[in-house]
Amino acid sequence: MSSLRLTLCAGAAVAALTGPAPLAYAADGDVSVTSGAPVPGSDIRLRVQGCAGKSGTAASEAFVADARLSGGPGALTGGTRVRSTLDPGSYGVTVTCEGSGDEVAGTVTVVDKNDKKQHDKQRQQEQEKQKNKQDEQAQNRKQEQNQKQEPGQGSREWGAPASPVAPVHAGGGGTSRLAAAEARSEGPGTRHAVVGLVLAGVAAVAVAVRSARRARGRTD
Fold this sequence. Notes:
alpha+beta; seven-stranded antiparallel beta sheet; single chain; disordered N terminus; rod-shaped; Immunoglobulin-like; 7 strands
């Protein structure tokens, strides 16, 4: 037989059995009240962990009747009502697991109706803090994943040229090469004309000499 002691902290709005399923109130143990800390006369739902079977019974002096529990192995749920004449305080709860005979023990804390709003506010603040912490952790994980997927980006200096640029040599050598390139790009000029005239003159002299030789040969 396992006997685990549980204190259910105060803190949630009253939820009727016929209403929508409320958020489970966190507790350290095997028994929890899904509607939080109840007030006298309120309907509550219990959640029990630890039973190997599919059903069980939860009994307490605080309940109008025993709560019939059902579900799957390891997690049982069921509803009951808190006595309306009950004084605020902690009351023991004994859960009997059908089939195995094991028992799970805990306590349920009943709060005063006038303190319900304060408990609700405290619980809401705790839930908001927990949600903000989870959001921050998720954001940190996302940033780490982005950094792993994009290594080295952003390291190139802003304004750097996309392609290499050849350096410009200073001095006469660079100037000469630049002038030569400009001359090649300009096409035929005065120098080319002078060279053409010289070649034409040489050709004319050669023709004249050849003609004189032929004439002299005929005379002989």
